[in-house]
Amino acid sequence: MKRFCFAIAFAAAMFAFAAVNAQEYTSLQQIEQQSADDWADYQAQGEYLYQKGDMRFAVQVIALGKGQFDFVGYPGGFPGEGWIAKRVKVFYSGKRDGNVVTAPFTGFQILAQSDETLPIPENKAGSKAVLDIEKKTIDFVDPQGGVRTAYKVDRPNPALGAKAPEGATVLFDGKTVNLQDGYKLNEEDGTVWAEFTTNTFEADTPYHLHIEFLTTFRPYDRGQGRSNSGVYIAEAYECQVLDSFGLKGLNNECGGIYQAAAPAFNACRPPLTWQAYDIYFTPAKWADGQKVENARVTIKQNGQEIYKDLELKSNTPGRKGEPKQGEARGVYCQGHGNHVQYRNIWVEYLK
Question: Does residue 17 fall inside a structural domain?
C-alpha cells in the first residue's frame, strides 16, 4: 500500500514538474501575476553594456528557468553593432539568489583568430559576473577584487511601427484584416495569433513584406520548443521565428532559412519584445513551364541585414512546394502550438 501511495505521489510530482516546465507566458503582466520566481528571472534577462572610452563589451543574459542563467559576452558591442568580426564570445553561467545572479566565468568560444586586443572586462579563471536585478547592473569582478560595471540597456528598434508606403497593401494593422479564414485576433492588443495565412499577393511580382512578431517567454523549454513559429515566404520558404535570444544563429534558429541558410549573425531581441522582419523577395523565373532562375531574398531583422540577395534553391519543409509560374500566394505564419503574435503586416510591390 505504501509503495502504491508513493507511486501516486511521485507521478503527481512529475506531472506538476512537467506542467511548470511547459509554462508559456504571453505578456509581462502574466509573468508578474503568476510566478514571483519567473518574474525575477525575466527581469534579470536582457542586454547589458560596459563601455569605457572606445572599449565596449556587450552581454546578453538568458533565463533558463529555476534561477539558472547563461551570460554571452560580445567584445566590441552587440551583434551587428560593433561585435568585432564575429571573433570571440565570452561565457558565464550562474544562479540567482534573491535579486542577485552570481555567474562564474566559464570560457571563450574562438570564432576567428586576430592579434587585436580584446575589449573584455575580465576573462581569467576565478573571475565572475554579479548581476543585480534592482540596480540593473552586472559587475565583472576579477580575482584581485577589481570591478567593472555594465548597465542594462533597451536598444531602440528602428524597424518597429514602420508605416505602409503609399500604394502598399495593408494585410493586418489591428483594424484592416486581409487574412484568410481561421485567424484568431487578440483584440485587446490589436494583434493576431499564429497561425494564419494572408490573402494572396500578385503572382510573379517582387515585393517588400514588413511583419512584426512577439515571441513568448518559455524559460523551461529549449531549442525548437522555445516559442516556435515561422514566416513562410510565398508559403514555401520559411524564415524561422523562435526565441533564439543569445544563441548561435543557426539555420533552425530565429532568422534562419530553415535547414537552408544561417543568418549573418543572430539579431534576436529578448522574448516578449517586439521584433520585425523586412523581407525583399524576388520570385523564381520560369520559361515554358520550367524554372530558369531561383527565387532570391534579402532580409533585415530589427533593421539589421541578415541576408543579402540570398538564392533560394528550393522550398523548405513544413508547408508547400515552390509556387509555379502565375500562381498567386500569400504568406503563411506557422503556429506550432505556440502563442506567437503578429502585427503591422503590409506588402509593397516592387515593379
Answer: no
